TrEMBL record:
PANTHER family: GLUCOKINASE, MURR_RPIR FAMILY TRANSCRIPTIONAL REGULATOR. This is Transcriptional regulator. The keyword Amino-acid biosynthesis does not apply. GO terms for biological process: carbohydrate derivative metabolic process. SUPFAM superfamilies: Homeodomain-like, SIS domain. GO terms for molecular function: carbohydrate derivative binding; DNA binding; DNA-binding transcription factor activity. Signal peptide: none annotated. Residues 1-76 form the HTH rpiR-type domain. Keywords: DNA-binding, Transcription, Transcription regulation. Residues 125-263 form the SIS domain. It comes from the Bacteria.
Length: 282
């Protein structure tokens, strides 16, 4: 999760923590070079309050928190976009205004996603996909559209994934997975009860799972073999569409597919040429 997102999740913050969060969010450039005593003075708190706040955000202490601030400043995360992911237009906007906002929102969603990815996570996930005997995709709603797109791409490299909900009984589908298979779950909120139940079941059977979500605090994380959590500035319910989250999912799945493809690039390319010749030029 991006630091800017953590600073906005103030519901469980104390008064001191809210004051510190507000100050950091509004003074990133200055905080990037501040000593802990300076930040404490600027927020009318104490050395120990700053350390506790850092740990609340998941950092080991102020040094690690300040490093996250430095990285945020370097990446200019706060300036990714000012388009509201939940309502990406204003009353009276022209058609071209809305078109520009949607383009900016999509680009920002992908940029936010790439900032939260890392080499090891991508490599591990791609290896799991590449080595799996069978692939099963669990998703509902808009996320299932992304899953089906991923399913179609996989056929290009002779991998055939099963949509878990395809025949209306995902529980029985899950019951037949083996330890050489991989179950991939797509859920931005990570709150689908059936998915949680299946993840727990597969965890108990030591069956590999990959959870792609926008909620790093989801109960599902504890049961997944690997989690890729990519947050967006998108609310769970008060929105007109799942624009940012689905752009993020599409980008992640496309990235994983191309990494898998690249692992056997020459073989896949040769197979593509052979198949094209035999199918369309014979």
């Amino acid at each position: 999760m991006l630091l800017t997102d953590k600073l906005q999740q103030t519901d469980n913050f104390t008064d001191n923590e809210q004051r510190i969060a507000t100050y950091i969010a509004g003074n990133m450039d200055a905080v990037a070079t501040m000593a802990i005593q300076e930040l404490a003075a600027a927020t009318y708190t104490s050395h120990s309050a700053i350390v506790r706040f850092a740990k609340t955000l998941g950092y080991s202490g102020y040094r690690e928190l300040r490093q996250a601030v430095v990285e945020a400043v370097h990446q200019n995360v706060a300036a990714l976009t000012d388009v509201d992911a939940n309502f990406p237009f204003r009353p009276g906007d022209s058609a071209m205004d809305i078109a520009s906002n949607m383009a900016e929102l999509t680009i920002a969603a992908v940029r936010r996603a790439v900032l939260q990815l890392n080499e090891d996570a991508l490599h591990t996930a791609a290896e799991r996909i590449n080595n799996a005997h069978r692939l099963f995709l669990f998703s509902i709603g808009d996320s299932q559209i992304r899953a089906r797109s991923f399913q179609t791409k996989l056929t290009k490299i002779n991998k055939f994934a099963v949509i878990g909900e395809e025949y209306g009984d995902m529980m029985w589908t899950a019951a037949n997975l083996g330890q050489d298979d991989l179950a991939i779950f797509l859920s931005y909120a990570g709150m689908v009860p059936q998915h949680t139940r299946i993840l727990k079941f597969l965890h108990q059977r030591n069956i590999p799972t990959l959870l792609i979500t926008g909620n790093p605090e989801s109960d599902q994380v504890q049961y997944a073999t690997q989690t890729i959590a990519i947050t967006q500035s998108e609310q769970e319910r008060i929105k007109i569409g799942t624009f940012a989250s689905q752009a993020s999912f599409e980008y992640i799945l496309d990235t994983l597919f191309t990494i898998v493809y690249a692992k056997s690039y020459q073989h896949n390319l040769a197979q593509l040429k052979t198949n094209y010749t035999e199918l369309f030029q014979s």
